[in-house]
Structures are given as C-alpha cells and as structure tokens.
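Quick review question:
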C-alpha cells in the first residue's frame, strides 16, 4: 500500500449517502492526487459502521456490533471514480448485513477509508528475463522482443521448435522468416506504448 486517507464519522453520522456526499469533493481530490502521483493505482474503499438492536421483548437490553464493509479493489487505468456506484455497493452490503430479520440499525458511521497502491499492468511487448535457476536448465526459450509486438508469434514458433539448433534462439530475427507458418487472421497484436 502506498497511501490511504480516512474520513472519521461522528455520533451524528448515521446515513451513508449523506456521509459520503458531504465528503465528495475531498474524496475526489484525494483520488485524483493519488492517480496523478502514480501512473495507475489499484484502490479500494472500506467503511466501518456501528449497529444496534433491541433484545428480545422480555428484556430491555440493547445490543451493539461493528461491521466493516469493503468495495473490492479496482484499478484507475480501467475504472473512473464513481461515488454513486460506491454508495450503492455499500448500501447493498449494509442491507445484506441488517436484512433477513436481524433488526440491526445503523447507529454511527465510524469511518470511510480509501487505500491505494501503485499498479503496473503487464503490457504486450514487455520482456521479462528468465530467472537463472531456469535458464541454466536450457529448457526454456525466452525470445527478447523489444521493438515490435510479436511476442506471441515468436513464442509459438519457439514452441514448435522451428529453429533446431543454435545459440540465437532468443533473437526475434531468427523467427521472422517463419512467420508465414502462422495464420494470424483475426488476431490483433496489442500495442501498448
């Protein structure tokens, strides 16, 4: 985790919608700042809520409990921050907790927390060196593709062993003359720069 921000509630905060909407600008600014400081982030929300309910009719006991609800991690390179969706997801989780005749009622929102970390998705054309423990076995061909996006094609050609011998099996230039063997019709090579 690279960063987090917590918004604390008070005894007056009992409505999730109002609690989040009142902090809308601050949440948005925090999110945008985190995203601007990192190329992409993976983030999630956590909400802690206190509940109460009265005991059985023959007693006057009031029971209390606390529950935490999470919105699953999302990535900023795919998802935009949509607070309406976040509110809806939290309300569904709270309804699931307090539903089914459990009689739990929100007594206070303790906090809302936004946590984020740096996220670097793998992209096509990314070369990852083979660990020494594997490369010493001479059982893996790891084609070093830096300047085009034909990693998949080179891997297939290496897998069908079109180059029988030689020390240059890791070079893309060795496979280019065999590209005609592959039918890539309808298959796009992804380009991420």
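Suggested answer, residue by residue:
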């Amino acid at each position: 985790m690279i960063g987090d921000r917590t918004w604390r509630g008070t005894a007056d905060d009992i409505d999730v919608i109002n609690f989040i909407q009142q902090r809308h600008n601050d949440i948005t600014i925090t999110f945008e700042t985190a995203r601007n400081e990192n190329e992409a982030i993976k983030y999630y929300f956590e909400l802690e809520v206190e509940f109460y309910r009265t005991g059985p009719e023959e007693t006057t006991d009031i029971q209390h409990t606390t529950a935490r609800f999470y919105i699953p991690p999302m990535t900023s390179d795919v998802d935009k921050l949509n607070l309406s969706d976040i509110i809806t997801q939290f309300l569904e989780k709270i309804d699931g907790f307090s539903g089914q005749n459990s009689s739990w009622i929100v007594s206070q929102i303790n906090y809302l927390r936004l946590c984020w970390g740096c996220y670097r998705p793998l992209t096509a054309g990314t070369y990852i060196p083979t660990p020494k423990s594997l490369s010493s076995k001479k059982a893996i061909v790891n084609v070093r593709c830096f300047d085009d996006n034909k990693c998949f094609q080179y891997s297939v050609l290496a897998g069908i062993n079109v180059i029988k011998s030689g020390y240059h099996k890791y070079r893309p230039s060795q496979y280019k003359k065999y590209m005609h063997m592959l039918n890539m019709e309808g298959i796009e090579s992804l380009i991420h720069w």
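Why it works: The helical segments are 16-22, 24-37, 83-98, 132-135, 151-159. The chain has five helices and four strands.
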